[in-house]
Specification:
Layout: E1 41-48, E2 59-64, E3 88-92, E4 98-103, E5 116-122, E6 130-135, H1 140-145, H2 147-150, H3 154-158, E7 163-165, E8 168-170, E9 173-174
InterPro entries: Intradiol_dOase_C, Intradiol_dOase_core, Intradiol_RC_Dioxygenase, Protocat_dOase_a
Protein name: Protocatechuate 3,4-dioxygenase subunit alpha
Domain Intradiol ring-cleavage dioxygenases: 40-177
């Protein structure tokens, strides 16, 4: 058996993409509620790389509370029956790097806290998924009081606040470079 050099660690053998595009997307994954239903809003945006080019094969997961701020803990997120809101969805981007979710406007999970979407990004070149948040812009007092947002400088903070539109919200994601989206690290990640 050959001697190993102490202190050296193996490098990753594979990144998280783009192979996920063959197995992870599923029909209706981006529809947490049916588009056009009374409570539906649209969350959409574009995913960009460090050079400002669109990423045509990223995959996003969305986690959120319902309109009342309740974090849904029911099983069956992959089964879309058109009635049950599960608080989770998955969407692939198109060739222009654009993603869309049909969902509900999340409520704040605690009084005085801002409403938000939690987003996970899988994309080529990443050795692990990335986590971020898209805060809703309407409640400026709650945004100002949020511990994460208040710890950031104004330019970083702006990367986490979605833009309101007539049918919902736009949230662009920049993986690197100018106006890079702030990404989070959770315990155990």
């Amino acid at each position: 058996m050959a001697d190993r050099t102490p202190g050296l660690v193996p490098t990753p053998g594979q990144t998280v993409g783009p192979f996920f595009g063959y197995a992870l997307p599923y029909v209706g994954g981006d529809e947490l509620v049916p588009p056009g239903s009374a409570r539906a809003i649209r969350l959409h945006g574009t995913v960009y790389d460090g050079a400002g080019d669109v990423i045509p094969d990223a995959l996003l997961e969305l986690w959120q509370a319902d309109e009342d701020g309740t974090v849904v803990q029911a099983e069956g997120s992959l089964d879309r029956d058109g009635w049950t809101f599960t608080g989770w969805g998955r969407a692939s981007v198109d060739w222009a790097g654009h993603y869309t979710f049909s969902t509900v406007r999340p409520g704040p999970t605690e009084p005085g806290r801002p409403a938000l979407f939690m987003i996970t990004i899988f994309a080529r070149g990443l050795t692990n998924r990335l986590f971020t948040r898209a805060y809703l812009p309407e409640d400026s007092a709650a945004l100002d009081a949020d511990p994460l947002l208040s710890s950031l400088d104004p330019d970083e903070r702006a990367t986490l606040i979605a833009v309101a539109e007539p049918t919902g919200y736009r949230f662009d994601i920049r993986l690197q470079g100018e106006r890079e989206t702030v990404f989070l690290r959770y315990p155990g990640h």
